[in-house]
Amino acid sequence: MTTMTIKEKRTETATHILEVAKDVFAEQGFAGARVDEIARRAGVNKATLYYQIGDKKALYAEVIHNVLSNAAELGARAIEKAQTPEEKLRCYVRSIARTMDQNPQMPPLMMREVASGGKNFPAEAARDLVQIVEILTNRTQGRP
């Protein structure tokens, strides 16, 4: 039997909480989501949720940031292998589609954000979106 460190257990718990939160935020939006519900579905108490992630705003920001930063990394890796601008664009679009396929909660979550005028959209997630676009524009214009 493998013994996990406290940090590994915390990471596993935090990851689980974020996955559950992604579902709840997609279903109910930021305003409708309740920390009590997220904790209940994750099988943890609210104190654990707050300790692992933070408050509702931090939880929401982390959910979106995790997906978008992973999308940026996937896009960057995909583009590195491509030779022509057309091939880079195709690889980039495929990587974004793969991210959305792996995170089906994101389209409804993002649509709720758009409908609210970006009222709760975290600044960190906005930077992630900028990074995603910059990856494509910088790499297709011959920049590193």
Question: Which labels suit this protein?
Answer:
7 helices, single chain, Tetracycline Repressor, domain 2, 0% strand, mainly alpha, 144 residues
Average pLDDT taken over every residue: 86
Largest sheet: none
- The number of strands is 0
The count of domains is 1
Overall structural class, as computed from helix and strand content, comes to mainly alpha
Distance between the termini: 45 Å
Under the CATH scheme, which class? Mainly Alpha
H/E element string?
HHHHHHH
Residue runs with pLDDT of under 50 for 5 or more positions: 140-144
Beta-strand level of the residues, as a percent range?
under 5%
Rg: 17 Å
Number of helices: 7
Quick one: overall form?
Answer: elongated
Give the second-level CATH assignment, the architecture: Orthogonal Bundle
- The CATH H-level superfamily is Tetracycline Repressor, domain 2
Assign a percent range to the helix content: over 70%
Structure notes:
With 144 residues, the chain is mostly helical. The protein has a single domain, classed as Orthogonal Bundle (Tetracycline Repressor, domain 2), CATH 1.10.357. Helices cover 79% and strands 0% of the residues. The protein has 7 helices and no strands. α1 (6-32) packs across α4 (56-81) and α4 (56-81) runs antiparallel to α5. Residues 140-144 have low confidence and may be disordered.
